[in-house]
Amino acid sequence: MKVSVSLALTTILGLAAAAPQRGGSREQQRADRKALQDLAGTDVDPNLPNGTRLLDNGQGQCVAVSGKAVCSDASGATLLNIHPVMQKVR
After folding, report:
1. What is the DSSP string of 2-50?
2. Domain tally for the chain?
């Protein structure tokens, strides 16, 4: 059962990442960036091998590392998923 769930998740995410798009409208760029920020730091299947690509879009990518999603923007800077309340404090 675990294998089939992992395979299904990997397949779905792989299809989503299969055709990354570059550029696009400002609205699309914001949506792509938000998707990266939302995924950053979240728990993912711990059975996924390190380096498994979870998301790849025109603004960056996320990979699995030790059961967590690690995301970076297009420049290579690591993104952190900070709680919205803490974002306002900054």
Report:
1. HHHHHHHHHHHHHHHHSS---S--HHHHHHHHHHHHHHTT-B--TTSPT
2. 1
Question: Among all chains, which residue has been given the structure tokens 């769930």?
Answer: 5
Residue-level pLDDT, tens digit, the chain, 90 residues: 555 555 455 556 565 555 555 568 999 999 999 999 999 999 999 999 999 999 999 899 999 999 999 999 999 999 887 655 444 444
Please tell me whether the overall predicted TM-score, pTM, comes out greater than 0.70 for this model: no
Neighbours of 61 (CB within 10 A): 19
Instruction: Report if residue 90 sits inside a domain.
Output: no
